[in-house]
Amino acid sequence: MGKMNRKRDRLEVIHDFLQIISNNHNSIKPTPLLRKTNLSSQSFSEYYEELLQKGLIKEIKNSKGKKYITLTDRGFKYLEKYKYILGFIDEFEL
Amino acid sequence: MPVPPFFGPKIAGIELAYTVIVVFLCFLVYYKTKDMYNLTKYKGIGYFRKAFLFFGLAYASRFILHILTFTSRLIFDSYMPRRATFPLMMIVVGYLSTMAIFYLTYSTVWKRINYKHFIIFSNVLAILVSAIAFISRSNILLSLLQLILLAFTIIISIKKHKKGKKKSHARALYLLISTFWLVNLLLVGPRRFVPFEFKVIMQLVSLVIFFVIYYKVKKWVK
Predict the structure, then answer these.
(1) What would the mean pLDDT of B191-213 be, rounded to a whole number?
(2) What distance in Å separates residue A61's CA from the closest CA in chain B?
(3) For chain B, domain boundaries
């Protein structure tokens, strides 16, 4: 089964979410982010709130008052440690 | 009253060294995975961490129980009689170790079971087990109860195991940790029929398993 078809794991969704922001020079508007994450609006809102709350992403406004989303240091740390986290979960069957 | 020959300074020293190393390794596993858990809040990692926290505390309280079994008459008679301290420690040991076994098993099956009352359920059972241990004042009965619980959790774990999933030997390690805990608990008290050498070899093997787990944790937590 292809990656796009199977149900994505929560950790994987968060990883993809953060990776999209990082790939966009660490600055992306909410609407293109929603499109690129391939999530429903409701799921997107839930993840978005969760990541804000966990301090993995933050909102910034440019001089024109437009909202952008960027990664925090914790967000970058998540991306950096992602493969180790998956390795750990696999190793201990968690 | 002289110190019994089967619990001289040499045996007490070995028990202490064994306990210190196991407790240290358990707390190290708990501490090393803190960062990973805080970053992800992944439930499986949370249960895994708690299992090792409870195992560390259970081993520490087991050592106190072991010391009480032999020395309470010598040391505490005038202050705290053995009949008061021993059952109290049985409650602590019973509760902590039952929780450790539950958390360890649940960490591997929580995705398939996803039982939202797990914490309440495991606490109720752990309190029940420790209450029986308190009333009976028998470490043998406590071991048997935990053996039944362990067998039950193994059955659930096997039934809920995802077929075709890559094997990592984690379950075998968990089973060994739990089994060694039960044997260790069984050996608390004056068991003259258990040769000293057997006990030491068993503790060495148990240490190797804890070291293997710590090594595997360290490999992924950088």
Answers:
(1) 86
(2) 26
(3) 5-161+168-220
Q: Which of B39, B107, B168 sits opposite A77 (nearest CB)?
A: B39
CA–CA dist A6, A10 (Å, integer): 12
Instruction: For residue A1, give the DSSP letter.
Output: -
ipTM of the complex: 0.84
Per the domain annotation, does A5 fall within a domain? no
List the CATH number of the domain containing A19.
Answer: 1.10.10.10
Q: Which two tokens stand for residue B18?
A: 């064994």
pLDDT of residue B215: 95
Closest CA to B171 of B22, B205, B162: B162
To the nearest 10 degrees (0 to 180), the angle between helices A73-91 and A10-23 is: 140
- Look at B108 and A93 and tell me if their CB atoms are within 8 Å: yes
User: Which structural domain range is residue A47 located in?
Assistant: 10-91
| Closest alpha carbon within chain A to B214 | A92
